[in-house]
Write a structure and sequence with these properties.
Shape: globular
Structural class: alpha/beta
Radius of gyration: 23 Å
Number of strands: 19
Oligomer: single chain
Number of domains: 2
CATH superfamily of the largest domain: Alanine racemase
CATH topology of the largest domain: TIM Barrel
Number of helices: 12
Largest sheet: 9 strands, mixed
Helix content: 25-40%
Length: about 425
Amino acid sequence: MKTPFVTKAQLEKIVAQYPTPFHLYDEKGIRENARRLKAAFSWNPGYREYFAVKATPTPAILKILQEEGCGCDCSSLTELLMAGRCNISGENIMFSSNNTPAEEFQLADKLGAIINLDDLTLVDFLEQSIGRIPEKICCRYNPGGVFTLGETREGFQVMDNPGDAKYGMTRAQIAEAYTRLAAMGAKEFGIHAFLASNTISNEYYPTLARILFQLAVDLKHETGCHITFINLSGGIGIPYRPEQPDNDIAIIGEGVRKAYEEILVPAGMDDVSLYTELGRFMLAPYGHLVTRATHEKHIYKEYIGVDACACNLMRPAMYGAYHHITVMGKEDQSCDHKYDIAGGLCENNDKFAVDRMLPKIDIGDLLVIHDTGAHGFSMGYNYNGKLRSAEILLKEDGSTELIRRAETVEDYFQTLVW
């Protein structure tokens, strides 16, 4: 069973100050998780986590992670600007984008970010955009085909389809890119790849590492380029459902270390630094969407209406994603009522849960929707003129801090031309 990181008594005090709905983040949990990740890869002297800004683009969160030694993975102009305003710059930024406008490369270069090229055609485009090729550069690799992990400890297969993804270069293209970049002045090279999303498996990262480590050895022999870092990107998931097991980051780190020593060290490449770009793993469990039951409806199904909607959390409406729900104060009661938990949008898919067994919900009850710390607020939108909610930080000392105010109607109207 999933347990909220906040008690009902704490939450009642918070909602007395900040009206629902809002996103609430757990500073203590975020910091502890960042430290576990760092410890898992401490065997690699150059290791660095580049938090995926797209998951939770909130300055207060980025600053917490910066204090824990994390950089930023940015993929747009606005994300670069946000990192810069948080005083994050230089090689603490990894810029990984696609279909990239020239001005984004220019800003990334101005900030001193490591630029990760998504396509072979971007080699010349980057030079045209900034007037040169940086001495340190990265290329994104896409092996094509279907990636499968086979039977895991959880008894299922991890499968994804890199060949259907728009990202990265083919094997031949990345070799050509390295050769051309070296001729244009690049001296340090990196490899980046992302093969599967939200994996609940301790085997994903070690398997990906073996693929990229062998690629690095082969590329060194083929091109003579000095490969100084390998970016394992994201893909380590979280258990959205209570019956799913947690990933063990210590075991994952040890699996990557074993692959490193078996492949890179014998090839004389024991100076390669490892990078990660985790968003969901870093933040998702440490965010709750807090909402209140406002209506009930009894027709062909039993509905509970809440004051949040898909504009606050798109994932369930977008692709039927499961998010656990706790009815605060009723954690020990029997889940003997079947509900659809619905928002107020004029869309039938505006539901946080369908046919979910929960305790009896009364009007006014507070509901915590779990695992919204990543890809929650960040995917919000304004359909039906709904306004984006506030973000609140539950600090380590138990106090709260407003880290993003709720939108107002005037905010919504601000960009309109009457």
